[in-house]
Amino acid sequence: MNHRLLTCTIALAAATASFAQTHVMDVNTKKAGAVVQNTMYGLFFEDINYAADGGLYGELVKNRSFEFPQNFMGWQTFGNIELKSDGPFERCPHYVVLSDPRHNDRRSGLVNEGYFGIGVLKGEEYRFTVWAKAPKGSGRITVQLIDPATMGERQEFASVKLEVKSADWRKYEVRLKSPLTHNKAQLRIYLDGRNTVCLEHISLFPVNTFKNRENGMRRDLAQALADAHPGVFRFPGGCIVEGTDLATRYQWKNSIGPVENRPLNGNRWQHTFTHRFYPDYYQSYGLGFYEYFLLSEDMGAEPLPVLNVGMSCQFQNRNNAKWHVPVDELQPYIDDCLDLIEFANGDTTTTWGRKRAEMGHPAPFNLKLIGVGNEQWDTLYFERLKPFVKAIKARYPKIRIVGTSGPDSEGKMFEIGWKAMKELKADLVDEHFYRPEKWFLESGLRYDNYDRKGPKVFAGEYACHGKGKKWNHYEASILEAAFMTDMERNADVVWMTAYAPLFAHVEGWQWRPDLIWFDNVRMFKSVSYYVQQMYATNKGTNVLPLTMDGKPVAGQKGQDGLFASAVTDKTDGSVIVKVINTSKTAQPVTLNLNGLNGVSQAATITLTHDGMDDENTLDQSEKIVPREGTADVTAAKRGSVISDNLPPMTFRIYKVKK
Fold it and tell me: Which of 135, 141, 412, 627 is deepest in the core (most CB within 10 A)?
């Protein structure tokens, strides 16, 4: 565009704005209202889309203990290989024996394919560990990182020898440094020599994990979570809490203790979607409840574990009683909740507090919240939840219990669920809503009329699912931002929120949209991630009244698609106003900051983009990101004024410090 044409375009835009109606919003900066909870904006983790193994969990080897039902799934074997099941770990008994191939020109060994390949980064070190023994007292293996599709001279690009020095099982460690970045590497192990070697729990981790923990998280993915500044972290799901059946439900006690002895668990997302079916999708439990608590602590988020209420997945099993635990047989499930609270908070003299200390964390995790049941509904759920509430309240009266209103965002079953949660005295109610654009545009007053005396709201799973466009496109994210003004404005009722799902592997997803996408070496944050981050890093401490013609700015008639909310932050005296224009035309906006004087400039953060169907990608990870700027503030009789022309489909934050 040439300079003259650009000048004309700007002039035309200004002229158009001058004829449009100016929307005047009044903010009472002196009337600090409801407290915005520290837990207001959080994260919900579920092992779907390869979010745990193959994703956030740093392990690069698939089926590291040969416990998959097809024991060599993920492995190629060659030469003289034998599988045995009398290994050193009771709940993971399988291991492999590499023996002499009985020919000078043959090899015995195995290759692991990883999760859609093994991702390594140039210059980074990788920790290879294995439990091994050599029946003759000594043996040797060669460990390699290879490029299976290389067109070059050599497949291996990193190699190291490991000496096995005992006939007894011992843990060994060597490190490999990658000279290159590779998204589809593999791990190859050779028997080096004639002496037999037995291998169990074959593991490969980046040395450079998040917070440098040995059994840690993939650094870039965990850092993205921390950068979202979550106030609460809900785990481990989701539907995996229930399991396809009770045998495959998530059992937290199996996910703690030595990682080598955590049993394999099936994942209900393995077979849920036949159009994207992954028969190798299991849970190693390497990322277990201890690691979830540590991650919560590392991020500064309140942990919110969710446990099974004695029901398998209600969507798959409906109201068939045979798939659910009889009410009079619930005690082991209730004990799981009570024992978990002791694991998190008990001192080292308690049974489960001692187990936590033995894992390396003598200090309590200071658990305050627990969820019982996930997205369940009707009498089957209500009658099972009741004894859980009674038992938890009796032993741990300060623990807040999160119940659920089921999968619906409104309607008969939703209303029945809320009524039951009030009667059972749940502290918070977990609402889920995956809804189309129209729902988000029309729900700007959803929480204004909620009962202020009842349980508080946890909007625990939500996302805008575009009609015919179920992906992370820009338009859906802007509508989520608009809806979030209602949550913020009603912070006295809404105490916690979380977008869902959190993670998705670009080659292994089954559900979308998702907050963060990744392959084996790269990741990108969706536009919805930036919306969440903008709110979380500008949540303030108290709600401020904001109105237009005496009404909340919630996309109502005559408001031309505008949504807005305001907070103050008492820690620094700032006033923060969030305004979203969901219309397809620019909207002139005037913010009257009544009671705020002596200010000449506001800091702004703006999320805006022209292409409604556009999204960030691995190759264009910052195609759509928030931009910082400023806006002029002028003095007025009652305080200060910001005048702006908000572009179409734009989310802008104004932050003014006294």
Answer: 141
Per residue in 357-390, pLDDT tens? Answer: 999 999 999 999 999 999 999 999 999 999 999 9
Q: Write out the two tokens for 606.
A: 């703006």
Q: Is the pLDDT of residue 11 over 80?
A: no
Gyration radius of the chain over CA positions: 28
Instruction: Write out the DSSP string of 468-484.
Output: TB-S--HHHHHHHHHHH
Pairing mode of beta strands 41-44, 232-235: parallel
Structure tokens at 498: 């979380």
Alpha-helical runs (H) found in 150-212:
none
pLDDT at 3: 42
Phi and psi for 340 in degrees, rounded to 5?
A: -65, -40
Cα–Cα distance for residue pair 387/379, rounded to 1 Å: 14
Task: Determine which helix (DSSP H) or strand (DSSP E) holds 351, and give its type and residue range.
Answer: helix 351-358
Residue 339, phi then psi, degrees to nearest 5: -70, -35
> Residue 630 corresponds to which tokens in the numbers above?
């400023």
Structure tokens at 201: 């729990």
CB atoms within 10 A of CB 564: 29
- DSSP-derived letter for residue 55 is I
Q: Other CB atoms closer than 10 Å to residue 417's CB: what's the count?
A: 25
Q: Which of 291, 375, 431, 480 is catalytic?
A: 375
Task: Note if the bond before 236 is cis, omega within 30 degrees.
Answer: yes
Is the peptide bond prior to 69 cis by the omega test (within 30 degrees of 0)?
no
If one counts every other C-beta atom within 10 angstroms of the C-beta of residue 258, the result is 13
Amino acid at 639: G
8 A C-beta contact, residue 590 and residue 22: yes
Q: Beta strand 41-44 with 494-499: parallel, antiparallel or unpaired?
A: parallel
In this predicted structure, what is the pLDDT of residue 106?
84
For residues 19 and 23, give the distance between their C-alpha atoms in angstroms, rounded to a whole number.
12
Tens digit of each residue's pLDDT (9 = 90 or more) over 519-568: 999 999 999 999 999 999 999 999 999 999 999 999 999 999 999 999 99
Catalytic, 375? Answer yes
How far apart CA 404 and CA 598 sit, in angstroms, is 47
Compute the distance between CA of residue 224 and CA of residue 135 in angstroms, rounded to an integer: 46
How many whole angstroms separate alpha carbon 39 and alpha carbon 555?
26
CB atoms within 10 A of CB 187: 26
Residue 650 tokens read as 């734009």
Q: Which amino acid is at 613?
A: D
Alpha-carbon gap, residue 360 to 602, rounded angstroms: 46
Query: Stretch 412-418: mean pLDDT, rounded?
Result: 96
Cβ contact 345:280 at 8 Å? no
Residues 17-48 have pLDDT tens digits of: 445 689 999 999 999 999 999 999 999 999 99
Token pair of 347 as six digits: 């001192």
Distance CA 155, CA 180 (A): 13
Instruction: Specify the pTM.
Output: 0.95
- H/E element holding 81? strand 80-84
Q: How far apart are CA 434 and CA 313, in angstroms?
A: 18
